[in-house]
Predict the structure.
Amino acid sequence: MPLFPEFETERLWLKVTDTPDAGLILELLNTPKWLEFIGDRKVYSMADAENYILERIRPQYERMGYANYTLVRKSDGAKMGCCGLYDRVGLEGVDLGFGLLPAYEGQGYAREAAQRLIEAAFNEIDLPELTAITVEANTSSRKLLERLGFQFERIVHLPDDPEPLLYLKLRPNNP
């Protein structure tokens, strides 16, 4: 895989997600919160996870230069979850998304990673704005997005998905 920018925070490395991360992807996409709030991505084996990376994640890196990042804790090398900038079918703009394994939730890691990607989006990639989506029931995600400065715009639906999603936006001059 070609080299793409990776990022760093005080406690984390944000590494380009690639096939060595298949174990994390398999575990993350099958956590109860992922299944409830994001949906079943039909990733049930290591082979499925590797294919998910090769077919869903890698093409966006090759097309846009950024996509999904594996969050690696500096202190011990633990792979904790993902955060990324996504070009989602059916949405305008670039979408910020994140998900952590349950053991790492509530410790500020998602906020730290998201803040770094927001900084990169506006100052290094030169995006004019970012979007985010979440189901209304995912209050922890919605609250984090609001703390990051995202503002509710409207309800949207993704193609072939009847579930209403909150669509939020962040512009560089938001507080």
User: Anything to note?
Assistant: The two ends are 37 Å apart (CA to CA).
